[in-house]
Amino acid sequence: MSPGFYTAATALDSRTRAQETIANNLANINTTGFKRQYPLFTEFGAELAASRKNMAPGISNVAPVATNWDLATPGPTLKTGGELDLALRGPGFFVVSTPSGERLTRAGEFSRDGQGRLLARGELPVLGQNGPITLPSGPVAIGPDGTVKVNNVVVDKLRIEEPENTNELVAEGGSLFMTSGKTKTADKAQVMSGTLEGSNVNLTQELVAMIANSRVHDESGKALNIVDEITGRMIADLS
Question: Is the entire prediction scored with pTM above 0.85?
Fold first, then answer.
């Protein structure tokens, strides 16, 4: 295959993946605690460069994991007054337990089930310093440092952590993240009770990005067709 073919093909592939990322952002614009994703473009995909060292430069590629999350931009906060609705000011994540292990989340829309368990998404135990938090009956108060009190008696303290390397975060199902690296206590985070953090996706920004990316995607498709047509003619002339 000619360098031109790979140039057009990888450009088309990268723009398709970028479009999928933008579409996912738009789909989660109303998801509590969702963090906007954005694609990372490279001149050469690492795996492509390794296998085709002598290929001409100019190949654009997005690797399957070449996305990052806008963790620095907080989502808008919404006052709800709910005693189990929590948001975080500053860096950090709540820690929840899932069937696949511990996960991080900024979505603090918690609830209490019939057994008194504090749950995220209505099914995932929220973790404190002593493990899954169980609340006795009575009014709940959660302080800025994450201390959980019921009837003015301390029950536990929320685990609020942040990854040592944010590049190791992998999104799972909207507002959940997993990390293959280590986490540390998010000392600068403050809990805001009776408040939820919304998605940090900006509708206008994403629509503009989608239009711009779509144009490049279309041009890459046209370029691929032209290269394919030229290659076909060359083969026909040689036969």
Answer: no
